[in-house]
Write a structure and sequence with these properties.
binds coenzyme A; single chain; Aminopeptidase; about 25% helix; alpha+beta; globular; 4-stranded antiparallel β-sheet; 3-stranded antiparallel β-sheet
């Protein structure tokens, strides 16, 4: 990161004042896919994903003291594939901050966290961002239908 770079990536701790803000982004983006949740119960579930290290962990891209993006390392994400773990999940950047490499930096931070806790292979699924993840070294694993849409499960090999 250069001295001019206003963005820094930090861990989101469960007691952070930013948890409700970041949870509200992911609820707005993906909450409709999990109809059992309210905004409040989603926020509390999101808070439980904010661990101290390893799985689970949530990271945020900060511009000064304002969060502008997030990504998570989670044990479970795709309920139809409980045998696959862990997952890169909840990758989101505020619209006005897109196209500047922030999601790429968040993905790299999650990858570093996974590698540090001994993960050699982990997973994501995406309906439409395959190109972004391929550029970051992820490989297509399988095409499946999940919650009514076509998604690609992708894998990332870490370490040697
Ligand atoms: C998908 C998403 C996370 C991407 O965030 P982002 O910060 O814009 O991603 P990046 O900047 O790292 O990469 C996006 C593009 O910017 C380009 N880019 C990367 N670094 C750049 C830089 N320094 N300057 C200009 N462009 C850059 C990338 O090449 C990429 O190109 P593309 O538009 O052809 O794909 C964001 O659009 C988003 O939040 N979407 C809604 C939620 C979502 O779909 N999440 C993914 C779920 S799988």
């Amino acid at each position: 990161m250069s001295k001019q770079d206003p963005i820094h990536i930090v861990r989101l701790s469960p007691d952070s004042d930013h948890v409700p803000t970041v949870a509200s982004w992911t609820y707005a983006e993906w909450g409709h896919l999990s109809p059992g949740y309210t905004a409040e119960s989603w926020c509390e579930a999101f808070r439980r994903e904010c661990g101290d290290a390893g799985v689970p962990s949530v990271f945020v891209a900060m511009e000064g003291d304002q969060p502008v993006g997030t990504a998570a390392l989670m044990a479970r994400d795709m309920h139809s594939r409980p045998e696959l773990t862990p997952w890169l999940a909840s990758v989101f950047v505020l619209p006005e901050w897109r196209g500047q490499g922030i999601a790429s930096r968040l993905v790299h931070r999650v990858e570093a966290e996974a590698a540090d806790c001994g993960v050699s292979l982990f997973y994501l699924f995406t309906p439409d961002q395959q190109a972004l993840y391929r550029r970051l070294g992820w490989q297509d694993h399988e095409e499946v239908r999940y919650r009514g849409e076509a998604v690609t499960v992708m894998t990332r090999q870490l370490g040697a």
